[in-house]
Amino acid sequence: MFRLLFALVLLAFTATAVAPAPPTEDLRLGLLKYNGGGDWYANPTALPNLAAFCNDQLGTELSIDYGTVEVGSAELYNYPWIHMTGHGNVVFSALEAENLRNYLIAGGFLHIDDNYGMDVYVRIAMEQVFPELKMVELPFDHPVYHQTFDFKSGPPKIHEHDGEAPAGYGIFYEDRLVVYYSVQSDLGDGWEDEAVHKDPPEIRQAALRMGANLIEFAFKQ
Question: Mind listing the domains of the chain with CATH numbers?
Answer without folding.
Answer: 2-220 (3.40.50.12140)
